[in-house]
Amino acid sequence: MPIVADDATALLDQLVTAERAVRDPAVTGAELAFMAHLQQLVYRRLIERPDLRDGVFSAIPQDLRGAADLNIAAGADLYLFGPGGARELPAWRIVSAPPMSALLADYREAEAAFGVPWYYLAAVNLVETRMGRIRGDSYAGAQGPMQFMPKTWDMYGEGDINDAHDAILAAGRYLSAAGAPDKIEKAIWMYNHDNEYVDAVMKYAAVMRADPSAFRGYYGWQVYFVTTSGTFLLPVGWSKD
Fold this sequence. Notes:
Blueprint: H1 8-23, H2 29-48, H3 53-57, H4 62-81, E1 93-94, H5 100-114, H6 118-129, E2 134-135, H7 150-156, H8 164-177, H9 184-191, H10 195-210, H11 215-219, E3 223-227, E4 230-234
Antiparallel strand pairs: 1-2, 3-4
Helix pairs in contact: 1-2, 2-4, 4-10, 5-6, 5-8, 6-10, 8-9
């Protein structure tokens, strides 16, 4: 597991190293997974320690500045959106994400079928379940990798609510019916009635729209859960049972 620095100079070095690595097609396998996790943890540190941001952002390379700004802002949105006051860990099971190539093919299939750009579907998948790693119902009762309420699934889903391909196609179908792509923000708000959620999805999507290789980093982000006792990593294989 990556060890995140606690000073601005070292954090800057870690951020630049991770951002470059996740965009480099020569970086694969365990190295890519490590760098993606490092990227995620550096952004978490910068969100939790705003006193370090100026020292990092004053020296970050210009070509990475836009993505870094969006990632910080999206992460801050999710801190406001998430159930940070939970007293105990959720009744989830953490599984491996589907292969990166399979997810990208599913997003592209949904884009071709329903006109919803793939990066919005990827951003929803990231925010909802970390690309399908979370198995279990939300507090509201939503299910599957794209977190559909059962009644909504009955209207827009085909197949298995827990299957990545079926769920991503259903998300494209739903977002299209809700106004995407022309009214994409409205459609995402219909997907989840929370302004911070919408902002986060839009920002992560903007990063991938500007540079599709950014998906390689997001694919490797892990499941963390915030409770009143602290923040916990829920690794693949974890279960509350």
